[in-house]
Amino acid sequence: MWNQGGYQDQGQGGFSSPGGFGTPQGTQGDRKSRNRAQNVLPCTTAEILSATQNDDKFYSGEIELSQITIVGLIIAVKESPTRIDYEVDDMTGPPLEVKQFVDNDESVPEPERIAALRENTYVRVYGTVRSFGGKRNVTAFKMVPVMDMNEVTYHMLEVTHSHLALSKHAASGMSSGAPMNSSTMGDNIYNNQDSGMISGLNQVQNQVHSIIQSNVTEEGASIENVCKQLRGVPERSVREAIEFLSSEGHIYSTIDEDHYKATDS
After folding, report:
1. CATH assignment of 193-262, among 1.10.10.10, 3.40.1670.10, 1.20.1250.20, 3.90.226.10
2. What angle do CA 77, 73, 251 make, to 5 degrees?
3. 119-177 pLDDT, tens per residue?
């Protein structure tokens, strides 16, 4: 089960802004108190395109769009030696530009180059929201082709569920006078509060994620280091856990396929 903290609005069902929380008419001081969500948030392209911008940060209502995931159809591809530009359409609004930075110059061996995904391919994108030249886009740190079309429907349900969950939490926090805290918000809704484990992950997967998440170096945690810290757990089990966490968007590779960082670290 893919269960990162998140929220959304598809521009229907009575929500006050397309693709996200209704934007409040607050002061600058109010804006400074907005919360940054700690996990990868399921979003729609409409939510990203309609998000409000404050300096280099983007907000849907009171929640900062830091690391997000979208699912949509690639309708255009433009390649260069250092970057692949995509237009991704999820049918909730205009297509969204997705930029994937690569190192595909002539000095890089052909097998090591990142191949562009083709047009008319459904894809799940993990990345961060950016603005360049006044145009909103997502800088991708991972792109995965959708192999099962049920994932498209599942993503939209995921977006709706997370939006409703965070809206309910925010309303209860406001009624009690308690301040909203994005870190505890993610824990209360999506994590096991007693153990700190992420719901939907088994024990080994949670242990591996915890070790990778605690690593603060630029290159991230190496598989060798994770294995050393999990004595008694077979290396094969560690690698299977890493493969699962990577495919689900909890972690991503850095300098090579043996080093990983957590997406919510």
Report:
1. 1.10.10.10
2. 90
3. 999 999 999 999 888 899 999 989 999 998 889 988 998 888 776 776 666 566 555 44
* Homologous superfamily assigned to 28-175: Nucleic acid-binding proteins (2.40.50.140)
Pair of tokens at residue 35: 């919360």
List of residues 6+ apart from 222 with CB closer than 8 A: 258, 259
DSSP H helices in the chain: 28-32, 45-50, 150-176, 182-190, 203-214, 223-229, 235-247
How many CB atoms within 10 Å of residue 91? 13
Strand partners of residue 116: none
d(CA 5, CA 182): 10
Give the pLDDT band of residue 39 (cuts 50, 70, 90): low
pLDDT surpassing 70 at residue 179: no
Q: Whose structure tokens read 């429907």?
A: 153
- Beta-bridged to residue 262, according to DSSP, are 251
Closest C-alpha to 238, from 252, 249, 228: 228
pLDDT tens for residues 188-205? 434 443 345 677 788 888
**Over 80: is that where the pLDDT of 183 sits?**
no
Domain residue ranges of the chain, discontinuous segments joined by +: 28-175, 193-262
Q: What's the CA gap between 162 and 190, in Å, rounded?
A: 9
Written as one letter, the residue type at 15 is F
